[in-house]
Amino acid sequence: MPAYLARRLLFSVFVLWGAVSVIFLVLRLVPGDPAMVLLGPDATASQVDELRARMGLDEPLIVQYGIYLRDVVRLDFGESFRMSVDAMDLVLSRLPNTAQLAVAALGLSILIGFPLGVVAALKANTLTDRVISVLSLVGQSTPAFWVGIVFILVFARTLDVLPSGGTGGWQHLVLPAVTLALPFLAILVRLTRSGLLEVIHEGYVQTARAKGLRERVVIFPHAARNALIPVVTVVGLQFGQLLGGTVIVETVFAWPGVGRLLVDAISHRDYGVVQAAVLFIAGVFVLVNLVVDILYGYLDPRVRLAG
Amino acid sequence: MTDTPLLSVRDLAVRFRTGAGQVRAVDGVSFDVRRGETLAVLGESGSGKSVTAQAIMGILPRPAGEVVAGSIVYDGRDLLAEDPNRVRKLRGDEIAMVFQDPLSSLNPVFRVGWQIGEMFRRHRGASRRDARAAAVELMERVGIPAARRRVDDFPHQFSGGMRQRIMIAMALALKPRLLIADEPTTALDVTVQAQIMRLLADLRREEGMALVLITHDLGVVADVADRALLMYAGRAVETGDIREVYDHAAHPYTRGLMASIPDLDAPRERLTPVRGAPPNLLDLPSGCSFHPRCPHATDRCSVDDPVLRPIDGRPEEHRSACHYAEEVLAGEREPV
């Protein structure tokens, strides 16, 4: 296990390096210059050049990249051009809001998606199953920005029962959390359904029935524990989608989280903040997948011993 | 009380819905299992042996399989008519089952001791600790070395024979009065088969429980069973005391199966298989289902469906579903 962890951590470093390198390059390839954005349209060419020099943007790309990597290794993630504060501090200050949103969405998905998937599987090929399956297909294929706007129209404008954006009490959390949860929840329903249907005719499920266990016990834990193995893997991978979803949802609902910070930073060409935010999100993604892999070993003892 | 059979199956019919149509996997089978006896249920794959067992256990795969007629009376209670929850409590407690493939029958993600202990926890409300101790005891009883150390291992850490011993330990946990073993040795190495068979026979004798032993291997059960039930295409074709059936087989199918057993004393002979293939249950032959494969068949056999009946000159208990049972027995009807 320690050797396995060390291998995984080393691999994670490569993943993060790849993420920051790609974002570093892409940021500098897209049109738009931070100095020009910062100074506005009235600035003279010499003013822009002077600011570029101060920001270190006059160096060759490879030198800028080298300096950036050196700084990152020293845990210095650069600063915001716009606000002159440490970029990572800015990201972390927005983290609680995003975490709140992600945890609420994740909780909603698991609390609703898993039971719905179980019901669909136990009632396979009945009307109940069809309704659940069609709804989850719709949920999975509807884009978050559209769902978000429709929610605002229906619940904030027409019915006026929930706020359309911003933060405050739990009411502010409902619409963005549901919007963010929807695709994730839908995938969870479908995965749980197929996972359970796959194991329901296995020999050990028959054994559990022959042992005279209650049907509830036959499903939990006998069948479900096996059905969960593939579900957990895909949930880990899908968590990246959820993180990506926060960018859209936070923008639609004016939710002051990391995602919205990232979008603002991109439009202002605030390189430092974009890089810090992407590195942070990539780091969370890598960490979640590491946790999932460890959990996988816990769920499937055959993997645990091989690892 | 002791005269009434422990298990009495009457006119059992099980229907399966398949993609290709409906199948009568079991069609009007009746038999008794007496207290403490061993009944061997014999037949080729697809003859309905396992489905019969699943029907008794109430674990037919749903919604595909369904009992459509008959009764299964255990100790005076009709399992098909009684409250499902009460029948469920009988399972594992009074009636237990051992399956063919011990790897797929054990849950891969739970420790074996936990799986055995579950019998005590769920049925008897035992504590985790007591259940685990009882599991160790059972594992020792079925001959698993270092049971105390291995109780927390997972199924994949055991060999095939050891896994089947664990299945047997689990089935015997609550001292059932009826054990159904469905091809318990088929998935195992030949050398292990005899050990498992002996273990089952020994435990049956010590516990005084009844055993229904389902197999396609006539050689395996000759020494351990009291009575035999031969099934073909979902029906009982011959039944009786096992020595009587083996020595005086009165159905051509039984004779065919006996002839296909390798004889070690005559090593150079070729094996004699039952000719033809098992019938397609979706499209059973008319009359006697066996007639297309039967060396004795006449025109009558393709029209007239024979019933299980006593045979002239043999004990009342010995029955055969062949129009020409007496002639087959006397060897009068030479294969055509």
TrEMBL record, chain A:
Subunit text: The complex is composed of two ATP-binding proteins (NikD and NikE), two transmembrane proteins (NikB and NikC) and a solute-binding protein (NikA).
Protein name, per record: Nickel import system permease protein NikB
Primary localization: membrane
PROSITE patterns: ABC_TM1
GO cellular component term of the entry, any: plasma membrane
Protein's membrane topology: Multi-pass membrane protein
Subcellular location as annotated: Cell membrane
Membrane spanning stretches: 9-30, 101-122, 134-156, 168-189, 276-299
Chain ranges of the ABC transmembrane type-1 domain: 95-292
TrEMBL record, chain B:
GO molecular function terms attached to this record: ATP binding; ATP hydrolysis activity
UniProt topology in membrane: Peripheral membrane protein
Main localization of the protein described in the UniProt heading: membrane
The entry's keywords: ATP-binding, Cell membrane, Membrane, Nucleotide-binding, Transport
CC terms in the record's Gene Ontology section: plasma membrane
Keyword Cell membrane among UniProt keywords: yes
GO biological process annotation, one example: peptide transport
Localization in the cell: Cell membrane
CDD domains cross-referenced by the UniProt entry: ABC_NikE_OppD_transporters (cd03257)
Superkingdom assignment: Bacteria
Segments forming domain ABC transporter: 9-258
PANTHER family cross-referenced by the UniProt entry: DIPEPTIDE TRANSPORT ATP-BINDING PROTEIN DPPD (PTHR43297:SF2), OLIGOPEPTIDE TRANSPORT ATP-BINDING PROTEIN APPD (PTHR43297)
Family the entry assigns: Belongs to the ABC transporter superfamily.
Name this protein carries in UniProt: ABC transporter ATP-binding protein
Organism for this UniProt entry: Jiangella asiatica
